[in-house]
Amino acid sequence: MNIKKAAAALAAATLGVVILGTATPALASSGGCVSGDACLYYSPGLGGAKFGKGEAGNYSGVFGGGGAGNGQAVLNNAASVWNMDPNFNLRVHYREFSIRNSGPNQYIPRNQWANLGAVPWNGGSVNMRNNNHSQSWE
């Protein structure tokens, strides 16, 4: 009897892993942006697939919603950003969140959008398009 219970428990656990394993990629895809988000777009001019992120931190997940870039990783692939937050300004950082203040970043005021592009850095410039690692709010 104990062997049957163990087999049933193993089968249930395996089914749970399979279900969770197939659900995770769908949850990682955004395609939706809401008020308070930084809405990153795969293409310039707010074009192509998009990804909404409301909290500070590194970019993870994939672009969704259809269009160019749908299913592509967000990290280092955004070309434009709409700051949909009515209260806070956004900074898109070239580096990961833990060291964001030691690298170039692009400032996007609240309720405005911008194409990611060249920003001054160390006497030259850095192109933020497709070089975006994290974001912070101020």
The helix tally amounts to 1
Helix content: 10-25%
- Count the E strands: 10
Shape: globular
Order of helices and strands: HEEEEEEEEEE
Q: Please state how the strands of the largest beta sheet are arranged side by side.
A: 2-1-4-7
Question: How much is the average pLDDT?
Answer: 83
Category from helices, strands and their pairing: alpha+beta
- Which residues form runs of ≥5 with pLDDT under 50? 1-29
Largest sheet: 4 strands, antiparallel
Strand content: 25-35%
- What is the radius of gyration? 19 Å
- For the terminal residues, how far apart are their CA atoms? 61 Å
Short note summarizing the structure:
With 138 residues, the chain is of the alpha+beta class. The protein has one helix spanning 2-28; strands at 38-43, 47-53, 57-58, 80-83, 90-93, 105-108, 113-115, 118-121, 124-127, 134-137.
